[in-house]
Structure prediction request, 108 residues.
Amino acid sequence: MALKESSMRKNSSKSNSVKVKPLFFAYILKCADDTLYAGASNNLEKRIHEHNTSKRGAHYTKIRRPVQLIFQEGFQTLSGARKREAEYKRMTRRQKFIMINKASKDGQ
Prediction:
């Protein structure tokens, strides 16, 4: 599976573009039973660890371990990440894989 890493976003300015590291992430995980899970976090590495090992992971992923990160997008606001997470959750499985494959082909 492709992993989209939008770890840098351009911040528009009149004189030049500055790359800004995202503070929040929307992500998609592939579970051991081949289902997909969408979430949002400000610390992606920690959150994936929680999904795989701790009691703090979502119930859905706790019973489907291990999980693997297959897609992520970075955002400057929690609101932006949560909105994108909601979009993922409205997508069909097929739509998610089309998006992931397109991002992979685009080199992102």
User: Anything to note?
Assistant: The longest helix spans residues 78-90.
